[in-house]
Amino acid sequence: MIQFLLNQELRSEHALDPNLTVLNYLREHVGKSGTKEGCASGDCGACTVVVGELQTDDAGREHIRYRSLNSCLTFVSSLHGKQLISVEDLKHQGELHSVQKAMVECHGSQCGFCTPGFVMSLFALQKNSDAPDQAKAHEALAGNLCRCTGYRPILAAAEQSCCGKQPDQFDAREAETIARLKAIAPTDIGELNSGDKRCLVPLTVADLADLYDAYPQARLLAGGTDLALEVTQFHRTLPVMIYVGNVAEMKRIETFDDRIEIGAATALSDCYEALNAEYPDFGELLHRFASLQIRNQGTLGGNIGNASPIGDSPPLLIALGAQVVLCKGETRRTLNLDDYFIDYKVTARQESEFIEKIIVPRASAEQRFRAYKVSKRLDDDISAVCAAFNLRVENGVISDARIAFGGMAAIPKRAAHCEAILIGSPFNNAVVERACAALAEDFTPLSDFRASKEYRLLSAQNLLRKYFIELQTPHIETRVTAYV
């Protein structure tokens, strides 16, 4: 059984189909049809809901953290122990919520189809903002698409709703909600079981290892932003899933003198602060990683584990010399990330083995790390080419080079020939041009609807040139640039 709060209503579910999304649960099982399906792939934001989780801050104070999610990509099992808020829950005692009023008063809605999603994104923004902030508003709304208004009135609604905000019914009930969430906090393995399909929800790494050993055919579910597409887009059935999002050990970020250890189930939005502090280009790229709804849901381990050749984080992590800790039963092994990817969607992971955490070396003064993402639009888009460069230059000579690309091969891959040209050479234009030519030996990219093979190779070469120019003239630096 799993338990969660539907606003303030306790829901206990056991026999539901584990392949059921929160979107369809709301619309078909509880009659809340305000949440809309626009794309069923996490691109449009019409299905946005907000999930509240019990958190404890550094001072030991308990509070509820509210986050926007795409309900079309969220399986119901991930709600275990949490609070689900949909657009119907905002109106209170006959009065619209302040974010709804702002949308009305700023004329932020025309056809209205996308409006519930915008309202929920604004609600999460208001809950997480103390004052109007244009950058945060753009970030909060980047995952919501509207064909009618041109966004200006919606941004005006964001400013109004965050300016001088007043306590609402959720603030008034916070203590009560905290008590209720504590009362339903999971204490044992949860399960949804419809007879022919099941999803198991472990709480510890040990339980996860035991379950995965018992069900090696199970699909591991973290954020589900990729896995859920098999259900919503390809109409496949997932007979057995194991949801790892309640394993607290895999959601920790620990900083040591020489490294950062990030649990594989840590949401990308939670990774931002630690990675941005060490590597600002990594932080910039995370801002461009899909939408806020996806970053609130998707995990760093999942972005590695799905072994996509166009995943945004693997090239950066490879260039930084990151490692993954793989767990199987009571056995653990640490593997360099560039050795993890074998072929398209093929990895070095063994049966019943899973990524427990990612180890990222801390920055050093000698490193010259930069990352660039080439995509057709700035926000909420997939890379055509993603490049990461990490050189050590001592007395004008390159002593070490780690260069990795996504979108250039069947796997995220280092540029071995390019690196060989650079190491031991002076860091000058002539050497860089030879290294650019060597990229043609490292990669034979494919053409697809995102870019031609010629465009990809030329882009990769030009990004290396850009990296060289920026290091020579840092005042013209433009990180993680999009090219149209």
UniProtKB/TrEMBL annotation:
Keywords: FAD, Flavoprotein, Iron, Metal-binding, Oxidoreductase
Xref: CDD domains: fer2 (cd00207)
Span of domain FAD-binding PCMH-type: 192-365
NCBIfam families: xanthine_xdhA (TIGR02963)
Species of origin: Pseudomonas fluorescens R124
Signal peptide limits: none
Gene Ontology MF, one: 2 iron, 2 sulfur cluster binding
Alphabetical list of SMART domains matching this protein: CO_deh_flav_C
PROSITE patterns with a match to the protein in the record: 2FE2S_FER_1 (PS00197), 2FE2S_FER_2 (PS51085), FAD_PCMH (PS51387)
Domain 2Fe-2S ferredoxin-type intervals: 1-90
Membrane-spanning ranges: none
Entries under Gene3D superfamilies matching the protein: 3.10.20.30, 3.30.465.10, [2Fe-2S]-binding domain (1.10.150.120), CO dehydrogenase flavoprotein, C-terminal domain (3.30.390.50), Uridine Diphospho-n-acetylenolpyruvylglucosamine Reductase, domain 2 (3.30.43.10)
Keyword Iron applies: yes
Keyword Ubl conjugation: no
Origin superkingdom: Bacteria
Identification of the protein by name: Xanthine dehydrogenase, small subunit
